[in-house]
Structures
1.
Amino acid sequence: MKRKLPSLLALVCTGLTVIMALAWLFPVYWIVATAFKSETDTIALPPSFVPFPPDFGAFIYVIQNSPIFRWYLNTILVSSVITFFSIFCALMCAYALSLLDFKGKGLINVALLVGFMLPFGAVAIPLFMLMNKLHFVNTYAGIILPQIATPLSVIVFKRFFDQVPIDFRNAAVIDGAGDFRILFNIYIPLNWSIIWAMAIVTFIGAWNNFFWPFIVTNSTPMLTIPVGMTQVQSAYGVAFAKTSAIAVMASIPTAAAYLLFQKRVTQGVMAAAGIK
Amino acid sequence: MTKAQPNDRPRQRRKRRSIGWVFVAPFLFFYTAFLIYPALQVCYLSLTSSDIAGQGSFVGLQNFAELIRDQDFWASLWHTLYFIFLTVVPNTAVGFFLALLVVRLKRLRLPVLSAFFLPFVLPVSVVTTASLWILDTNFGIINYLVGSSIAWFQDPVWAMPAVALVTIWWTVGFNMLLFIAGLQNISTDVYEAASIDGANAFQRFISITCPLIWPVTSLVLVLQLIAQFKIFDQVYLLTLGGPYNSTMVVLLYMYRQAFQLNRGGYASAVAIVLVVIMLLISALQFRLLQGKRAK
């Protein structure tokens, strides 16, 4: 009898948890559902909860009347380049900080810590002026360059490199391998899962970044999706199906990346927060 | 290795020293050019009457003198603190609560966890689009279901709580993940021992879970404090600082001064205040982490 009671309680608890999870997803569902309605259906009362038959009008309108594919291309390009260079630079730097001995290492460690604490918003003004002087406003370079150095990735990779037994490197040094080969043939393969995790997290972060692209771009063809969609929305005025359709299209890549690589994203988020 | 020739060592060491710089060079280039240099620049700019193109003259501490008397700046600081009050503790508490719910699941764990975490990977503009639609005064589903007619983002009383609510919905998954990791680190032996001693579930929760999860809780609280202090995106997209400036926060105030009123120097002074506060918070975080490591 004592066993039956907790199991019933557990069942109720699980049921409530599932209901909460569904409620949490409701806004996501609602915006997807709205995207498949006609504009008149979106404001009909009582609202229809399932858009059947689905209406693709909003999607067609958005595709025909906004440079959404250009923005997709911009965002894919920008996020990929940021991810590649940011991970590459962080790996090189982390390797040096973890395994090499050189003058000024302490200074770099301090600089990393300071940069880690510095809010990006605070440097936005001089950064914009710099980009303006370099004629990088409204260019890919302008969006990309300030997002490459991520102290967080360096700190995470360094922590993982520190845990690789030093014998691995010593053995390779005796065999005559240089530091580049040691990094690319030993340290990177050994830490592949965390590198992959940080790469996905970096990509999602770059894709979603709003603040900096918003500051450094204002010409329509150069916008990234998160910035571009807000521009379209203010042009559409009150048009819930269209704004929802563009929101759905903007979120597909990151949502898909998360659902496909769930474990890696979780691992990356934990590592970035300093747990594990 | 110990038998390496003595002549060889200094040269090898020198070579290694230079290779260290080769390895840090790519990172250091981007880091210095696009973070350290602008950070130093902002200090200088705060002492000038510069516009957003960088043209202006040195004015000493005049910007700061003006800042102290600037009612709108103090209001923006106050609104930021109000936002922090509405988000930091609630977001941490909800994250902990959701973690407790998720961590006891087995087969349903992954789908439920994903449901709570999914909003976190969406772009902020998608989150605000969904919020503006769902919380719309006339056609929003929330007002329809609740039977209310609140103008969530247009009412000075409701605007900030509504922005806070959206923020919690969006970011709580992150906190939940950290708490789940923390809960999993608590050894089951401790719970078993307590059960044998006759502690009931509630007692176990109060005297085992809560104290053992505290390091994670303090970490989440500080991370939240740092993140929410920088609030800009959601406010800009949801309310533009309105209605009647009731959601004007520090970073938005800085943005407005710099990019709309063309006062780069004055905006830099606002940025300096922001940095000083952030560094104080980070120092607090550092002490907390140090304390954790010392244990």
Note: Residues 64-273 of chain A form a domain with the MetI-like fold fold (CATH 1.10.3720.10).
2.
Amino acid sequence: MGLWETISGRTKPKRANLDALFLVPSAAITLQTAAGLTPTGDGSVCYRAASGAGFHQTQAEVLALLRGSADAPEVQTSSDAFGFTWLQVHRDPDDPEGMAGLCTDLHAVNTTLESEGFGPGLLCSLVPFADPAGRRVGLVYLYKKGTFYPFAPAGPQQRDNLLELQVRDTLRAELPIEPELSGWLALWGAPGL
Amino acid sequence: MARSRFVGDAGLTVRMTTVIFLLGALLVVLVVGIGLAFRSPGIGLLVAVGGIGFAVYQWANSDKVAMRAMRAREVTPQEAPELHGVIDRLCALADMPKPRVGVADTPVPNAFATGRSPERAVVCVTTGILGMLTAEELEGVLAHELSHVAHRDVLVMTVASSAGIAAGALTQGAQYGAFFGGNRRDNNNGGLPIWLVVLVVSLVVYAVSFVLLRLLSRYRELAADRAGAYLTMRPDALASALQKITGGINQIPQRDLRQVRAASALCIAPAISGVSLKTLTSTHPSLEQRLEQLARIQAELSRPGAQ
């Protein structure tokens, strides 16, 4: 933070970095071939719903936008224990274009929210994967940092750290992975995991 | 181009920078005044260096001192999972390093942030506030405290107070000078004893610095309110939290207030209340002022989008 920001006591809210989502489809293929993890067809965006009419209107617009297209996915919203809202999108996982369509949907959500000035409220995006043994790993994208990290819950308040590190090593060359392990925020109760 | 819902407050920025500039000018006045009294610029500079040095020492130890003053202890994520979880998410939203978390066991509802930089910071809450607020309101309060950390308020306030610290030390020293130095007069000053000149200059500087620092503290609080409201996107949560806390503190009996006096300036609401709260000497803006700013932010956030 610069000297002027320190003196004037004003931090600019961090702008979200939206475009890296389009790296996910090729990362999904790598995960499938190298680690046997297949996408579940879900994808979700986690954001802070602002209070007031403006945000509700924007959210309604987003939902209408997603549901209005020709090959519309299933869309629903829910809120979690921390008061954040999850907007979940589901597309058929067997469809080869499914993952690309999913990322386009998530990107549409983000850009709509950002264009209405609610970009600072975006927390993360989540794309869950599952392996044949039933373990689930979510690929989380943090908007403010512009980096990805894996999150593999293995029970209440427990993470499968080895699986997470394995996913990190698999995807290291393709995606910007969050280098600080302390930044791998746990998302307990996230939809799809 | 994405639209921004940030409500800038040019007036607040102008007032804040003016006060900071005046505090810097005050240090110069002190240096010059002392230099003239002793007819030696070196002593004036020594005083300034001493004041700044002590301020830096205070800043470096701010987290330990404040934690001890409020009798707060650090808690791990296992001990307070919800508290850590809320702070985790707020830090991810703000893209700032996560501070240490502490809890103070006292019924006075309050929260404070301290520490010399965002990398070495602590955010503390009291058990009183944990019991009093809903999860959303607590999140608003924590966002306000994290904004203090992000704005480096501890550093700014400590540096800004260096003139006052030096002047305060000189007032003490000048009184000793009167006692021991007798009537050593500087004939070039028309017979005024040196200690008197030093005493008067440092008293004036101390008084002006006191008022200016309180003013600066109020502006920083408003800036932290604003940043916290934008972080959570819920100004109404912070507003209702402030109303609960300010009401709550007035009901706490006198004897608890003395232990929080030292750290009051870093808290979300002045921990000392009901004791001659004249606006000039208050470290926090009035509740009405804070609510008014939050209402402005709320109006901007809830304005329907452009079609």
Note: Chain A has a mean pLDDT of 89.
